């Protein structure tokens, strides 16, 4: 019964075992919770992720999951078909970690995305202010869609939603913030990020149909601090897939990043974790390795640090 286009592996209930959130096209999304015995239980409907707020299915494409509020809540973002808004399923406070509600409208990811057909999608901190932003790569599947819907186009610009950190979390950025290259119309599909030029901020690659990939170099110059952390595991897997890294800043923020390069649509981003810090400095760093062991660490500002797991 699945028409799967993307999967987000993440430990949703913090029991140390990886769960799976599955984005399905025109049928209900799945949430597979890990039973700790090699099997999974599907709870998409019970968790609130299977359908939209009206109990309808959508054309789900790309997916990513992150703690975009810098707290314990997990947000699962899904890019949907044209005339369907992005989804943003968020764990509900003081409730079960496996109960979600779609907050795309109240968080600002919904209405602005409705007319686009969203494929590639990921969270990343594009301006290094310490808050995770969200990018979607867009493009229709029907070359002549404009003959049927004059306000929908085959080639579509990407969308970048800036995380304000307050009130309505996300606001759609425009050329005044990013320049024009990011928003050139194309038939976007996959998307990924990496610090390709080694300057600390994250650059973007977007693939398109019938055209070359786009390499979009991030030239932000806001003077924000950052730290990049590359994990090396020994007990579970070499790249420490599934680990969480928490950075506490001297202004009291707790930034969490998940070691999971699988995200977006038919894409994989770099495994090195990037923490934007804004004007703050680092108070502490801790790594929760895939085997559950938590270790404290330090790292210098504006550099990449390799953290190696020492305990099995």
Structure description:
The structure is a single chain. Helices cover 3% and strands 37% of the residues. It contains two helices and 22 strands. The chain has helices at residues 44-47, 175-178; strands at 4-10, 19-24, 30-34, 40-42, 63-66, 75-78, 87-91, 100-102, 118-124, 133-138, 159-163, 170-172, 188-194, 203-208, 214-216, 225-232, 244-249, 254-258, 273-278, 282-288, 294-297, 304-308. A four-stranded antiparallel β-sheet has the order 1-2-3-4. Strand 6 and strand 7 form a beta hairpin. The radius of gyration is 19 Å and the shape is globular.
Keywords:
312 residues, mainly beta, 4-stranded antiparallel sheet, 2 helices, 3% helix
Q: Please tell me what the overall shape is.
A: globular
Helix percent reads: under 10%
Major β-sheet profile: 4 strands, antiparallel
Treating each run of at least 4 consecutive H or I residues as one helix, how many helices?
2
Strand element count: 22
Distance between the termini: 40 Å
What is the percentage of strand-forming residues?
35-45%
How are the strands ordered across the major sheet? Answer: 1-2-3-4
**Rounded mean pLDDT score:** 95
How does the helix and strand content classify structurally?
Answer: mainly beta
Uncertain ranges: none
């Amino acid at each position: 019964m699945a028409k799967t286009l993307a999967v987000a592996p993440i430990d949703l209930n913090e029991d140390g075992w990886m769960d799976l959130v599955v984005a399905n096209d025109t049928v209900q999304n799945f949430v597979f919770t890990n039973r700790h015995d090699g099997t999974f239980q599907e709870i998409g409907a019970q968790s609130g992720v299977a359908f939209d707020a009206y109990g309808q299915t959508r054309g789900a494409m790309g997916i990513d999951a992150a703690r975009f509020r810098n707290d314990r809540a997990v947000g699962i973002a899904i890019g949907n078909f044209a005339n369907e808004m992005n989804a943003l399923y968020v764990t509900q406070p003081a409730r079960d970690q496996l109960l979600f509600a779609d907050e795309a409208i109240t968080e600002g990811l919904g209405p602005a995305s409705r007319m686009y057909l969203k494929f590639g999608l990921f969270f990343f901190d594009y301006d290094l202010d310490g808050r995770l932003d969200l990018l979607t790569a867009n493009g229709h599947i029907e070359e002549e869609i404009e003959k049927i819907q004059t306000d929908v186009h085959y080639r579509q610009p990407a969308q970048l939603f800036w995380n304000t950190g307050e009130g309505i979390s996300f606001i759609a950025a425009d050329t005044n913030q990013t320049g024009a290259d990011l928003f050139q119309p194309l038939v976007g599909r996959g998307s990924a990020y990496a610090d390709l030029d080694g300057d600390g901020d994250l650059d973007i690659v977007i693939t398109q149909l019938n055209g070359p990939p786009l390499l979009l170099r991030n030239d932000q110059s806001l003077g924000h601090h950052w730290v990049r952390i590359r994990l090396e595991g020994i007990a579970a897997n070499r790249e420490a897939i599934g680990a969480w890294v928490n950075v506490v800043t001297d202004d009291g923020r707790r930034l969490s990043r998940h070691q999971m390069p699988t995200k977006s649509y038919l894409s994989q981003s770099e495994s090195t974790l990037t923490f934007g810090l804004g004007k703050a400095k680092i108070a502490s760093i801790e790594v929760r390795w895939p085997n559950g062991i938590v270790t404290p660490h330090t790292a210098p500002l504006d550099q990449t640090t390799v953290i190696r797991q020492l305990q099995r």
